[in-house]
Amino acid sequence: MACFTACVAEALVAYGVKKVVAKSNHQKVRAFSGKIQKLINLLLSGSFLLLIEHVWHGEIVPFYPFFTAAKDPESTRVMINEILTIGVSMDIAVTVIWFVAYILVPKFKKQGAIA
Question: What is the pTM of this model?
């Protein structure tokens, strides 16, 4: 229903972190902002695909309250539970994959541990 909103929220936080990191005077810290941008891209692209899927299935509509689950309190509880379980799980999975791909692998390549 609205699980993608958790990824959008994390992307907004990551964008704020990127802006703070970009203002740093250290070269290595500023270079990290490019890696953060890749995390933002992963989160937003996945969120966009989920948005399209939810629109396709009629769970999101172009009029208020936008989420069909927000029409009654019981459905709203289910929607919030989905955001907190599935959405946060997706956030964790995407962030772990980003961390491995853009932080750990380059570090191991520098040390020669990975060919």
Answer: 0.88
